[in-house]
Structures are given as structure tokens and as C-alpha cells.
Amino acid sequence: MASYLAQRQSVADMSRYLADHNYFSGTGGNIGVRVDTTVMAVTPSATDYYTIRAEDIVLLDLDTLKVIEGEKTPTIEKGLHARMLRVNRNRHASVHTHQPIASAVALLHATLKWPEGSDLQLLGPQIDLVPYRPSGTGMLAKAFEKALKPGTYAYLLASHGVICAGRDLKEAVDMIRRIDAAAAAHLRDLASTRTTLDRHLKSLVTSVLEHAGKMGEAR
Ligand SMILES: [Zn+2]
Questions:
Q1: Distance (Å) from CA 55 to ligand 1 centroid
Q2: Which CATH number characterizes residue 133's domain?
């Protein structure tokens, strides 16, 4: 009988939710959840989020990354999720996305602040930056390991995307939304101080970012 089916089903359901809300659009994204002390459930690579089933979620050994159960190939970013969860024992779910607004900021190689009044106990002190390395490579996993700090739960991967960890999957997905709000605020600040920006473009950019910010704050 398949193990951890309920947890694997919730990873499958959340993948669909993230795809529906455009966080997993385009080139996708992936999830890693600690389902037991040394077992991590991850999304498979190159699978349609709308047909994904609990059995497609692969179980890995959190330390060795060897497959324990599952027919599919695990996500190429399994090393990122494993490092995130190993360093932060109080976090059980890690989500990686290429969400558009935050990924745009990731192109600028900026570090982001959480909005004023945010719960930093929950979110960590800030959104840190991991230097660029090609996605899915051991080089990226190593760069991430170097940048990882216990207690910092959200990172922009330069010129690539976002990764964050919550105590559970729902909390990690809430963080994904909040990262987009922080990224939108950062870009709005940049647009408002840019004197060379055409005023029509400026008002367009501002309204797009305001909308993105509101989506990020919505619960
Ligand atoms: Zn990626």
C-alpha cells in the first residue's frame, strides 16, 4: 500500500491551486514537504499539475535524496527543498516558484524587506538573495546552501525565482503571496523615483503593481 497518501494528496492539491493562481505558470515550480523525520514528499518533474495524483508525488530520503517510493522522476530542485528543510527543523513545507512579480525583482538581484508590521517571527527577518546559478544544478544547490541561514525562511534566487518555507504547506503558500506583495512594493518604489519613466507607462506599471500588491495581501 502507498505510504503518506493524505500528505501526498495535499501536495498534489496545492500544486493545482498554485497553477490556478499563476504562481506555477509557465515553467512551473515545485514543492517539498517533510512527512516524517527523514522522509520528504516532492512534486515530480515535468508533470501537468491538472492531472497530478497523490501517487505521482515522490517520497525521498531527506538526507540522501534517494527515492523511497514513487514511479515518477522527482523535481530537479529536490536539493533546494531538502537543504531548506534540513536547516530549518521547525519548517515542514518548502515551495519554489517562478511567480512573475517576485521573479522580476529577482532579475534585479535585490534583497527585499517585508511590509511594515509583518510578523517576522513567522516570516523571518527579510527575503534574502541567492546568487545566480543555472536551475536544477548542483551549483545552485551549493550556492543556496551557502546563502541559507537558519531562521531566514524566504529567498529570491537571482534571475530565476523564489523559494520559501512554512511550518506547513498552507503557511508556505501564504508566504509566496506575501513575497509577491513585497516585490510589488519594491518595484512601485523604483517606478515612483524613476524620473525618466514615461508618465503613461508609469501609471500603467503602478496600477499593475498595486493590483499585484493587493492580491499578495489578500488571504
Ligand atoms: Zn526554478
A1: 23
A2: 3.40.225.10
- Cα of 51 from ligand 1 centre, angstroms: 20
Question: What range does the domain containing 194 cover?
Answer: 5-217
pLDDT tier for residue 218 given thresholds of 50, 70 and 90: low
CA of 30 to the centre of ligand 1 (A): 8
Band of pLDDT at residue 104, cut at 50, 70 and 90: confident
Distance 208 CA to ligand 1 centre (A): 24
Q: Could you tell me the distance, in angstroms and rounded to a whole number, from the CA of residue 182 to the centre of ligand 1?
A: 20
DSSP class per residue in 104-158: HHHHTT--BPPPTT--HHHH-S-EEEE----TTSHHHHHHHHHH--TT--EEEET
Compute, in angstroms, the gap from residue 74 CA to the centroid of ligand 1.
14
Q: How many domains does the chain have?
A: 1
Nearest Cα neighbor of 162 from 81, 87, 98, 214 is 98
Q: What is the pTM of this model?
A: 0.90
pLDDT in tens, 10-30: 999 999 999 988 888 755 899
